[in-house]
Design brief:
The complex is a heterodimer of chains A (499) and B (150). Chain A is built from 23 helices and 2 strands. Chain A is mostly helical and 499 residues long. In chain A, strands 1-2 form a two-stranded antiparallel ribbon. The mean pLDDT of chain A is 84. By secondary structure, chain B is an all-alpha fold. Chain B has 5 helices and no strands. Classes of the chains: A mainly alpha (499), B mainly alpha (150). At the A-B interface, helix 8, helix 9, helix 18, helix 19 and helix 20 of A face helix 1, helix 2, helix 3, helix 4 and helix 5 of B.
């Protein structure tokens, strides 16, 4: 069977001593940074990205993937132990996870999270191996119009899933698309919005924007209310869940895995929607629904499984279509381009060792996570207790040197500072930066595909509706928009975010 | 009267960015829908931003919203200032000087700033960065820069 041959190829790539080591380093570093309160996967990856530049492409991507799920797992640990979610996806975990911790069941919650994540990761890895090749095959039939519509769908989805005002999310998307256009226009060679600054000719690096808007501005925000950041960590007695707890988490893990895997593939969502959906479904159908919000282990197991499954399956659109579905994947796309690989449907054919190596290493990484995290929990707890005033100067220093090393240019340090201010001001005004970063990386791609589509159709915009793939994607985008605009649905959205 | 300050001010920002995008793009050549020039897409985006911004500003007058809240002026200035200063000095002064200054200045933004741990951290981070980034990963930054005779 093809699948087995492919996985064998992947296995032989992933278990080479070097790659195994980089996977372990990635998972370890990812967890170490991810447990720090207030640092989500996007900031963590942006910060650690420069470290991988010196590696060969396969090792670099394996390490980055490891950093990604490591940081996500680390974030869950912090959510459970100190009620400080590092990112939107782990907000749900705080609800019951922290309650369990308060009741002295922190260990059980951590184990539920680890076991659920591992199971979900395993299933999602297989799904990825199963569905990526046919999808890549189908993607080869995509024309420019289809790509354009796909990106529209992705951006609409990211708008729908953004917290806060819909109007501002749309505004941030349009703004991000615009910032993405800065630099030389590929078609005409015109220098756009460069103000005669030579460093801007190649455009603004996405890592610079990510570090500014997610790293710097987050630090400034945290300096606003320092007194609230006193960290009280729940004691961990035993990691072992009771027999009853084991029984109660099986079904939620299975359901969470299914929901997370399905939702993770959708453009624009990543793992956020999955964990929210898994939690609210569990809350509706569980026998112990009265206990939700008061420390139900189901309320930890389900969203954590969904979270990890979604993190894994969100690689599918990135690896097969070359279209990132969330800011983290946007960073991965950027990393691939830096390594000289153009992400897209041809990667799987032209670089099978790379493609399958990454997929198998994800499973190995998940294995490392469970081996690493539960025994090392004492060390992670120590990391969480580092006072923030000692933490953020170090984050700043790593961002500063990291952003410099992208192009060996001090100009990028200034740009990072500028985007830090911009990100802070916008977040004060209730505008979230996540949709902007995604749009930022899609901007030039969208323009290029729009141009090509219009050129092929001789200037007839109806081409977007005539092509079946494009029309379907646009219809989905309209549908997604409707779910927010129709009052009944938008109410559930608000409730989901309130929880 | 402005009732929702967040909507009002973010709307103004959108309009500012939208207008600048369109005005600057006037020089770029519009082209046609068939053969789009460099200005086509940015102008469309700029127009969209102006529309979104205007709706937001109007909403700012109609809807009652939460106030913007106090800005962390000290944090903002110190953190961004320290970052910019690091960019300005790192090549000339070298990491051994620019990095401790970066650490101390940014740490001073915190209300819990204390000298002893900060100085320890400055030394530790500088050593770490020199070893890992300069020696280990080969980032071309001087340890002691030309301003000090190297």
């Amino acid at each position: 069977m093809d699948l087995i041959a492919n996985l064998a190829l992947g296995l032989s790539t992933a278990v080479s001593p070097g790659n195994l080591l980089y996977c372990l380093i990635g998972v370890f570093l990812g967890t170490a940074i991810g447990v720090l309160p207030g640092l989500g996967p996007t900031a963590t990856i942006a910060m650690l990205l420069p470290v991988t530049f010196a590696l060969p492409p396969i090792s670099a991507l394996i390490m980055l993937a490891g950093i990604y799920y490591g940081s996500q797992y680390g974030g869950s640990t912090t959510s459970i132990l100190v009620n400080l979610p590092g990112e939107a996806a782990s907000v749900v975990t705080t609800l019951d996870g922290y309650q369990m911790a308060k009741q002295g069941r922190a260990g059980a919650a951590l184990t539920a999270s680890a076991v659920g994540s591992f199971f979900a990761g395993t299933v999602a890895t297989f799904l990825l191996a199963l569905f990526a090749p046919p999808l890549a095959e189908a993607a080869l039939k995509f024309g420019p119009a289809d790509y354009f519509s796909l990106m529209v769908l992705g951006l609409v989805a990211s708008v729908v899933l953004a917290q806060g005002s819909l109007l501002h999310a749309i505004g941030m998307v349009v703004l991000g698309l615009g910032f993405g256009l800065i630099g030389s226009d590929v078609t005409s060679g015109v220098q756009r919005y460069t103000f005669g600054i030579p460093e801007l000719a190649d455009g603004i690096g996405f890592v610079t924007v990510a570090m500014g808007m997610f790293g710097l501005s987050e630090i400034i925000r945290n300096l606003e209310n320092e007194s609230e950041r006193s960290v009280v960590i729940a004691k961990i007695s035993s990691l072992m869940p009771t027999k009853d707890e084991w029984k109660r988490m099986i079904a939620p893990i299975l359901r969470g895995t299914v929901i997370g895997s399905a939702v993770g593939i959708l453009p624009g969502s990543g793992s956020i929607l999955g964990s929210f959906a898994a939690y609210s479904i569990e809350k509706k159908i569980s026998k112990n629904r009265a206990q939700f919000g008061k420390g139900a282990i189901e309320g930890v197991a389900a969203p954590e499984s969904a979270n990890n499954a979604g993190a894994q399956t969100s690689f599918i659109p990135m690896l097969t279509l070359g279209i990132p579905s969330n800011p983290v994947m946007a960073l991965m796309v950027g990393a691939m381009i830096i390594q000289g690989i153009q992400p897209g449907p041809s990667v799987i054919k032209e670089q099978p060792a790379l493609f399958w190596g990454i997929i198998v290493s994800m499973w190995i990484g998940n294995l490392f996570l469970i081996i690493l995290n539960l025994p090392l929990i004492g060390m992670w707890v120590k990391m969480i207790t580092i006072p923030y005033q000692h933490l953020y100067p170090a984050i700043l220093v790593f961002c500063g040197i990291g952003v410099f090393s992208l192009n060996n240019s001090t100009f990028d340090i200034y740009l990072m500072g500028l985007f830090g201010v911009l990100g802070y001001v916008f977040s004060k005004l209730g505008c979230e930066p996540a949709p902007m970063l995604l749009a930022f990386i899609l901007g030039p791609l969208m323009e290029e595909n729009l141009r090509r589509a219009m050129l092929i159709s001789r200037g007839d915009p109806m081409v977007f509706l005539r092509r079946p793939i494009s029309a379907t994607l646009l219809a989905l985008a309209v549908l997604a928009m409707c779910t927010v605009l129709i009052p009944a649905f938008s109410k559930t959205r608000e409730e989901a975010f309130k929880e | 009267m402005i009732r929702s300050a967040k909507d009002f001010w973010s709307g103004l920002l959108y309009i500012f960015f939208g207008l600048s995008a369109i005005v600057i793009a006037l020089d770029y050549g519009m082209g046609t829908a068939l053969k789009m020039g460099a200005a086509y897409f940015p102008t469309v985006l700029g127009g969209l931003l102006i529309v979104i911004g205007s709706i937001s500003v109007i909403r700012g007058f109609v809807i009652r919203g939460a106030p913007v809240g106090a800005f962390a002026i000290k944090g903002l200035l110190m953190v961004v200032g320290a970052t910019l200063l690091f960019g300005l000095t790192v090549r000339g002064a070298g990491l051994a000087i620019a990095l401790p200054v970066f650490v101390i200045l940014s740490a001073a933004a915190s209300s819990r700033f204390r000298w002893r741990p900060t100085l320890l951290m400055a030394v530790g981070l500088t050593l770490f960065c020199v070893l890992v980034f300069v020696k280990g990963l080969g980032v071309p930054l001087p340890v002691v820069g030309p301003w000090f005779g190297w």
